[in-house]
Design goal:
Length: 334
């Protein structure tokens, strides 16, 4: 006979795996049937639509009047130059919202994206070719780079840039891919629980993890409008949920983490059975476990990091107390 529920199951498992350069797979489970897609779809849209990036918004070149012009001695015409420029991914230093950057080049030279890096801006994809100058050519230009979200067409930018500059379509979004799939998983004897698996790639302006975190923060801020009306403290609810989720993860047995034989044996001899015991110890104390070599230490610290308990993780007072009490209860009942 099915039991009667009074509230939906709260997922407690999260996994983050780097799958390549600027690529990661983020999974969470177990969700009640239908809840996974309810959360995954808006999160995907927010990952793509609310992630902050940088893009050139205007270009001014000495001697050039419009985007269909050309520069003497430059292989590319201005239209191609603009296409190349828009493919370069910048980051403004010092956390500024805008930067006006001046450049001057003389030929013969193949101008690469790396040549645009200076004390004002960082360039992510340094190997992109911007332009090719012959030995008699000289190219002087100014780029304005801005911080933003989404896509802004050039006509919407003309009033905010230098009147003599060419307005550029601005592709701010740093996320190149955000997909998800829903998988069924078994919980107890119920095979109908669900797991969300996100695949996220960025252009390098920010990490997939940060893109996902920004989307969660944006969703929370948007939902807060309802919290105010219905007298629900979403921040407190989120904090409580995070603590409950963290406690569940901290109580995962270490023998379920796939450690190698040497690490497993060392932990077993030391009487360590749960992730939380390692988090309570910290790296320095873990180092002192008998017969635990550097390779095993690195394996343990990497696993803690993958579960959200890296070296900089701090247990708050209540979570620490709850964890210690729960571990004591579990060990007393063995």
């Amino acid at each position: 006979m099915k039991s009667i529920k009074t509230e939906p199951h709260i997922p407690g498992e999260v996994d983050i795996v780097e799958t390549g350069k600027n690529a990661a797979q983020i999974s969470a489970w177990p969700f009640e049937t239908g809840y996974a897609v309810t959360l995954a779809h808006p999160l995907r849209r927010l990952i793509l639509g609310s992630s902050v990036g940088y893009a050139p918004i205007s270009l001014k070149i000495d001697g050039v009047l419009h985007e269909f012009d050309s520069v003497r001695g430059m292989k590319e015409d201005i239209a191609v130059f603009i296409i190349n420029l828009k493919s370069i991914r910048f980051k403004i230093k010092d956390e500024l919202d805008r930067a006006v950057v001046k450049y001057s080049f003389k030929g013969p030279k193949e101008i690469k994206a790396s040549d645009l890096e200076n004390d004002q801006v960082e360039v992510i994809n340094k190997d992109v070719t911007l332009a090719t100058l012959n030995k008699d050519a000289e190219l002087n230009f100014v780029i304005e780079i801005a911080k933003g979200i989404g896509y802004v067409p050039s006509e919407d930018l003309r009033d905010s840039i230098d009147s003599e500059a060419i307005a550029l379509d601005a592709f701010f979004t740093p996320v190149s891919k955000a997909n998800y799939k829903i998988e069924n998983i078994l919980v107890g004897d119920n095979p109908n629980y669900e797991k969300i698996v996100f695949d996220i790639e960025t252009d390098g302006q920010l990490s997939p993890r940060d893109a996902f975190g920004n989307a969660l923060e944006t969703m929370n801020k948007q939902l807060n409008v309802f919290g105010k009306v219905f007298d629900i403290d979403l921040e407190a609810t989120k904090t409580k949920g995070k603590s409950e989720s963290a406690l569940k993860t901290l109580l995962i047995p270490v023998d379920m983490l796939g450690f190698g034989a040497r690490s497993s044996n060392s932990l077993e001899r030391a009487g360590i059975k749960y992730i939380g015991e390692l988090v309570l110890m910290g790296e320095n104390e873990i180092k002192s476990i008998k017969n635990l070599g550097k390779k095993s230490l690195d394996e343990i610290m990497s696993t803690l990091e993958s579960h959200g308990f890296g070296a900089d993780y701090k247990l708050d007072g209540k979570l620490r107390a709850d964890l210690i009490e729960k571990i004591k209860q579990l060990k007393d009942n063995e």
